[in-house]
Specification:
alpha/beta; Rossmann fold; SDR; SDR_fam; 14% strand; NAD(P)-bd_dom_sf; 3-oxoacyl-ACP reductase; 49% helix
Length: 252
Amino acid sequence: MQLNLSDQTVLVTGASRGIGRAIALALASAGATVGVHFASSRDAAEEVADACGHGAQTFQADLSDLGDTDRLIEDVIATLGGLDVLVNNAGVALSAPLEDDTPTWDDAWTRTMMVNLRAPELLCRHAVTHFQEHGGGRIINIASRAAFRGDTPDYMAYAASKAGVVALTKSLARGFGKDNIKAFAIAPGFTRTDMAQDFIDTYGEDYATSDLALSQLTEPEDVAPTVVFLASGHADHATGTSIDINAGSYVH
């Protein structure tokens, strides 16, 4: 089977590094035109777009800001001429210890929910409207194993936000399937990224790998091929599903 996405335009949020970067490059290798979203790492995003080729362009938006998020889909469509697939990958993992004062606790929870859940919700809203007007489309949301098994006490906000992403995905699949819109969630386990480094620094890599069935920590490149497959249309009847990519760290 060969996956040819040469007729597909895809927006990948958080594409300047980590899992998002690997996804953008994998989609481009299958021929897709990729919108490379970034928040602040412009140089890194431009390097990704250059590596992608196929007319890839960069798009800046702070997903903790409602206005920035609200205009992103419109900017992509205006620049790239359309949108066929939305990949909501961007996320934050902010520590919120119980002993924090309430304003600090609230800030961590508010930012986590805005970037990890509210931004995807708003982007999905605009994508669905566009897809309804253009014959359909696909949404691929990057969740986390934390959505199903929870996380450490300091990262309860992260787990809660990702559980919301899973519910959002199922609701999109149920609500808009008749409009030829498919929605999927991918739930990576602990993956070697810059975002994960704070956790590794705090708890140690041995803690992160202690419950894995495999001997290696998951890499971003282990996640990307599944996104390409879902974007290709070969798995449309799996709409609404969540796919675990976590080195066998749990079965649920």
